[in-house]
Amino acid sequence: MSDTLTRLVAAAVEALREAVSGIPGIAPLATAPFLFRPFVLLIVLGFVCALVGTLVNLRRAEFHAEALVHAVFPGIVVGAVTAGTGMIVPAGAVAGALAAAALTWVDHHSRRDASEAGTAVVLTGFFSVGMVVLLANGDMSGQLEALMFGRLLEVTDLRLAQALVVSVLALLLVLLTWKEQVAIAFDPVGARASGLRVLALDLVLNAAVAAVVVAAATAVGTLLVIGLLTLPGTTGRVLARSVPGMVVTALVVGVAGGWLGLLLAVSPSPRPVSPQAAVIMVMALALVVAVGGARVTGALRSRQSTGLTRGAVAGGAREVE
């Protein structure tokens, strides 16, 4: 089944590569399969992370997302050291499911003022297990670097197929519960009073975040995957005034950031540029520009409003005279 799926995905990606090889802007990434596979993965991740990241931002669950990033680490390590890179995604998915369940349980069964402490315990506990397992297999500093910082250009057909399956799972989880997740984000008390199962919905969101982490970790690394999850959604929050606007903005930032970052990384330069770092830097730059633009726009509107108010006051004073 896995081999069949891998062959189907490889054939589809190769056909797509040949179809888009003449499009300006994409042609440099379609010159070879090892460049086009990361491009496809980044586009898919940009789409999925935009939706999941919007919910993470609305739910203010960035710390939970960071905890899941570290909690998935032992599964990735066990998969890598026991069966090679082909087992990273399946083993990471198992660890992600356990971590999502643990975080949801901690969040709902600890005192309100101790919830973040419990999350921190899960984060450090899972991560330390991963470090112990990794170092128990001898000097694996090179493997550790790859797991922490990722190797985007080493995405194989098998890892791409696995990442696409996990990404589709994350996408289904958020789409099937979208309205309920947004309702909890804006009015958690009202959502609970209306009969929504907050515990189950929290578990679904945590599972979706864990799925995204598993899909992206081997490509961009466990340290940078939090950028894919949070930067597009945060940029959408800064620029948009509605949830649909946030999603559209996050989609643009996520997809365009992946495309432009990879394009910059493969462009001629005096020194090699990390492609996964370039992708995150482009998204971070988009957020900085968005924040700066929003502040400038706010200042101009405030000045314009002040001018209109002063004009109205002056006009009223003249009428009184």
TrEMBL record:
Record's bilayer topology term: Multi-pass membrane protein
Entry-linked InterPro entries: ABC_BtuC-like (IPR037294), ABC_TroCD (IPR001626)
Cell compartments where the protein resides: Cell membrane; Membrane
Listed SUPFAM superfamilies: ABC transporter involved in vitamin B12 uptake, BtuC
TM regions (residue ranges): 34-56, 63-81, 118-138, 158-178, 199-226, 246-266, 278-296
Similarity annotation: Belongs to the ABC-3 integral membrane protein family.
UniProt protein name: Metal ABC transporter permease
Organism: Actinomyces respiraculi
Lineage: Bacteria, Bacillati, Actinomycetota, Actinomycetes, Actinomycetales
